[in-house]
Amino acid sequence: MDSATLLEKLSTMLKVDQINTNHDDLYDASADRYKKYAKARKVLDVPLPVAIVYPDSTDEISRLLMFCNQNNVNVIPRGGKTATEGGLENWKELTIVIDALRLDKILKIDDYNMQATVQAGVPLQQLEDSVRKLGLTTGHSPQSKPVAKLGGLVATRSIGQFSTLYGGIEDMVVGLECVFPNGHVSRIKNVSRRAGGPDIRHIAIGNEGTLCYITEVTVKLFRYFPENNQFFGYLIKDVETGIKVLREVMVNGYRPSVARTYSEEDAAQHFYHFHKNQCVLIFMAEGNVGMVKAIANGIEQAVEKFADGILEKVDSKLIQDWFNHLNWSQKDIDDEFEGMKENDSHAGFTTEISADWGTIPLIYKNVMARIRSEFPRAGDLTMLGGHSSHSYCNGTNMYFVYNYKIKCNPEDEMRIYHHPLQTIIVEETLKLGGSMCHHHGIGKYRNEWTKEEHGSAYYMLETLKNAFDPKGIMNFGTIYPQEDGKKYR
Ligand SMILES: Cc1cc2nc3c(=O)[nH]c(=O)nc-3n(C[C@H](O)[C@H](O)[C@H](O)COP(=O)(O)OP(=O)(O)OC[C@H]3O[C@@H](n4cnc5c(N)ncnc54)[C@H](O)[C@@H]3O)c2cc1C
Fold first, then answer.
1. Would you say the pTM of this structure is higher than 0.85?
2. Which residues, other chains included, contact 144 with Cβ-Cβ below 8 Å and sequence gap of 6+?
3. Best of 33, 92, 158, 270 to mutate for ligand 1, by most ligand atoms within 8 A of CB?
4. Domains along the sequence of the chain with CATH
C-alpha cells in the first residue's frame, strides 16, 4: 500500500476532521523530545507519518488497528506528547499516529469506592483538579502533570513526585481497557485485588504502544490533607550521606511523599537560593495528622542518626516554595523549544536508573568518574550531577542530569553528546545489576540495551510481542531492538 491509498482508505473509515495531514503537524509528530534540538533546527532525518488521526471511540480504534494490521501500517499511539526517549519518533514510511485527543471524558469519579475512570486522552491535571474539589487526590504528580494524559502515563509506567507515599502508576491503576492489533478489546475489571492468574494489567502498563492501545483507565483515589503538609530540608556533606538517611527512613517503614538527595551540582541549579555549594536532602510528609507526625519523627530520627554528615537545617518554607514551581506547563515546553532555535546549549537532559541501596552510590561514583575521564566532550559540559528522587524499602533511583554547550551540527548532537553520556550511565548500571530505566520508558533510544536489561527474561517480553503483535505494526522500534532503525541513531 502507498501513502495515497492509505489516506483514501482512512477517509472511508473516519470523518474529514478526524484526519490531519497538515505538513507542520506531521513534522511535529515525526519525533518527540529526544531529538528536540534537531527538530527545532528543522534537520530531522526520520520519515513523516502519513496522517494523524483522532478516533472518537474504542470501536473506531479497534477498526483502525484491524485495518493497519491487515495492511502492514505502522501505528504510533499518542497522548500528551511529553515522551522523552523516542517513543513517539517515527521509523517507518507507512505510519499513522493515533492521537487520543478526542478520548477526553472523565467517565466516573466514585468517592465511596475511591476510584476514578477516565478515557485515555484526559490530561492528568484535569482529573486531579476534578477530584481535588471532593477533597481527594490521584496521588500522581509527574512534572509533566499539566500536559501528560492518562493513556500515555500508563503506557510509560510513569512515576510522580509523591511516589514514596502513593507509588508509581502501576500501584494506582485498578483496571483498564485496551485494544490489540487484531481489533480485540480487553476490559480488565476494577477490583481491589485478585489472585486470578498473573496480573494482566502489567501487559498494558508500560507497553509504550508496542502491544496495545490503552483506551480507558481506572485509578485509585486518596484523601487529600494539604493543610497537614510538612517540609524538611538539609545541607549535607555528600550524596552518600543523603542516600543513607533516605534508606534509614524507608527501612523503618516511614513513607514521606517526597524523599530526595541532590548532588551539589544538581542542588546548585534547583536550590540556587540556599544551596551554599553543598548537597541537599529534602522531605515532604503528607497525610492525616497522626501519619504526618509519625513520619516527621521518623525523618528527624534518621537525620539525627547521621548527624555527622548533616551541615545545616534549611528553612522549610524554602522547600515548600520550591515545590510549588516544579511542574511544566505546555507554555514552558513550547518556550524551551522556541529557545532551542537560537541557543546552542542543552539544559536538563536526564537518564534515570535504579538499583538497591548498596549499589546506587557505587553506580553514581563510577558514572561520574567515567564521564569525567572518558567522555571526549567533557569540556563542553556545563553541569553534571544527579539526584535520588524515588525510594523504596529495598533501594532507590538515580536521576543523572547533564547540561552542555552544543559545538557540532544540530543533526549530530545526540550522537556526539547525549548518546555517549547515556551509554556510560547505562553500562555502569547494568554492570552492577541495576535497571537502566527507572521511569521514562525505553522508547527507541535505550532499545539497544533491552535484551541486556532483561537477560533470560527477555524471552517473556519477546513472546508477548509475538503473541499480541505478530506482524509488528505497533510502534516499530520502541522497546524492541530493530536492525532497520539503527540508521536513525
Ligand atoms: C517536562 C517533563 C517532565 C516529565 N516528568 C516526568 C515525571 O516526573 N515522571 C515520569 O514518569 N515521566 C516524566 N516525564 C516523561 C513523560 O511525561 C511521561 O513519560 C508521560 O507518561 C508521557 O505521557 P504522554 O501522555 O505525554 O504520552 P506521549 O508522550 O504521547 O506517549 C508516550 C509513549 O506512550 C505511548 N502511548 C501514548 N498514549 C498511549 C495509549 N493510549 N496507548 C498505548 N500507548 C500509548 C506512545 O506511543 C509513546 O511511546 C516528563 C516529561 C516532560 C517533558
1. yes
2. 80, 82, 158, 327, 328
3. 158
4. 3-101 (3.30.43.10), 106-223 (3.30.465.10), 226-323 (3.30.70.3450)
